[in-house]
Each structure stands twice: as structure tokens, then as C-alpha cells.
Amino acid sequence: MSYRTLLLIVLLVPLALLGGAKASGLLIPVPEWGRDYVLRFPFEKEAAAQIELPAIVGPDDPARPLVVIDAGHGGRDPGAIGTDPDGRRFEEKAITLALAKALRDELLRQGGIRVALTRSDDRILPLPHRPEIARLLGASLFISIHADSAGDQNDDISGASIYTLSNEASSEAAARFAARENDADRLNGITIDGASANVSAILVGLSQQRTQEDSLAFAGLVLREGEQSLAFVPQPRRAAALAVLRAPDVPSVLFESGFVTNRTDRARLTTPEGRARYATVLASAIKVFFARRADAASGGE
Q1: Taking CA atoms, which of 50, 56, 189, 254 is between 20 and 30 Å from 28?
Q2: What CATH number belongs to 44-297?
Q3: Hey, CA dihedral for 199, 294, 286, 228, is it positive or negative?
């Protein structure tokens, strides 16, 4: 078959099919945005768009400490999923947002601390943007709130834990958790190469050491303040190479509030009373953390 004949076949066959469809009255849908069979993949430039900074609420005094609260997952990334015996579905993204708002409200109620949420609705937010928001706002503390899943072991594993950054994960389980969380962007069709060169430079600087010490101190306060009112997993203080904690000049922790696959944890995480308990513990730890920093800055004991 000659090249010219092949070319005619390629051009004429689709036209013949279209003509036949038109003559028979068959409607051929044209893909358009908004239809469920059209998948939209953002280009790299679109994914790396300028970060939208959230509003800061609380005292109108820039000298007051600022806490940035990050509700994990969001948008088309539901995070961990649990179901109850009635078949109701519980998604991590909704649980973490409700907890983040409860903590914000408690901090505002107590006063003296400014607050910002990385997301205040059900939207997708690239992983590198989350700690970068804290950096750009000049945050004094960054808290990323999550909820875990235990797979089929619904009633066997429960309790909260708290993670700080470590280049060497504190355990094999922590390493697996870090790998899963760090892969969230690829699962959602977003690819961002990472933080800026400036951020990377700071990461390897000496400032990271002080930031890490502050992160560890705050993690200890959360465990102390929640000892009587929250349930923790065995060895709840953990470390992992989590991308969301790589804000080198902002003390950062990831708080795993519990397991959506456990009925007891789920009851704590999805009720106003349960969320208030988490918020009270975290707010108390935050207050003590900043009080100690202020005391150290003033030269007090």
C-alpha cells in the first residue's frame, strides 16, 4: 500500500463515520470541562502557581505569636477513610478540618494568639504549600492535623500520636507513614519539585537545630497536657521525614488525632464534645509553649 493511499484512508474514514452518524441522527458528545468523563491534568506551571495566603485572625498585634493550623488532605484527596456498621463513610479530610476549626476557635476564645488555617474549606492544597504558608506568614508554630487508618484492624489499633521531623524515621512504621503522606501530591495529579532553593539552603543551616528543639519541646507539651484526657498509642512521640514538616525556621509538628477505622476514636473525632477535648489539650500546650519562650527571651527561670 502506497503512502498516498494510506493517507487518504486516515483522512476519509473518520469523515465517513461522522457523515453516517449525522445521517442516522446519532449525537456524538463533544468533550467539555465539567463532564464526568473529562479528566483535567494541570500543567507544571499551573500546579506551581503563586501561593494564596490565608487570613490571620485574632489580636491585631503583629508582636503576638502566630499559629498556623494545617488540616490534612482536602478536595479530591479524602485521606484515610473509615465506615461504621451502618455503612456511613468518614473521611479524614473532613475530620481534620473540623478539628482545625475547633482549635482555632478555642485559641481565639482564650485570646492572645493569632491564628491562620492553611485551608478553611474542602480544597486541595499541595504539600509544599502547607509549610511554606507558615513561613511566608512568619508563623511562630505550625501544626498539621491528621487522622490515621488501621486497615481491617478496625478495633485493634487506636489512639493519638505526634510526629516531629527526622531525616531518619524513628521506626519502620513511621517511615511507611512518611512515604504515604509525601506521595499525596502524586496521587492527586499535582507535581511540585519541592521547596525553593532558599528554603533548601535554610534546611541544611544551623537554624534547623533550634527549630527542631522547639518542635520536640512542643510535642512533649502536647503529650503532657493530654495525658489525662486523650488516648495515645504506645510510644506516641515519633519522628519521620515528613514533607509537611520541612519548614526549617518554624517549629512544626504533625498531630495524628486517632484512627478513623476505630469506632472509639471515630466517636471522639466526629462529635463536638470530642473535638472540644482535642482543642483544649492542644490550646493548653500552645499557651505553655509560648509562655516558656517568652520567659526564656526575658531571661527568666
Answers
A1: 189
A2: 3.40.630.40
A3: positive
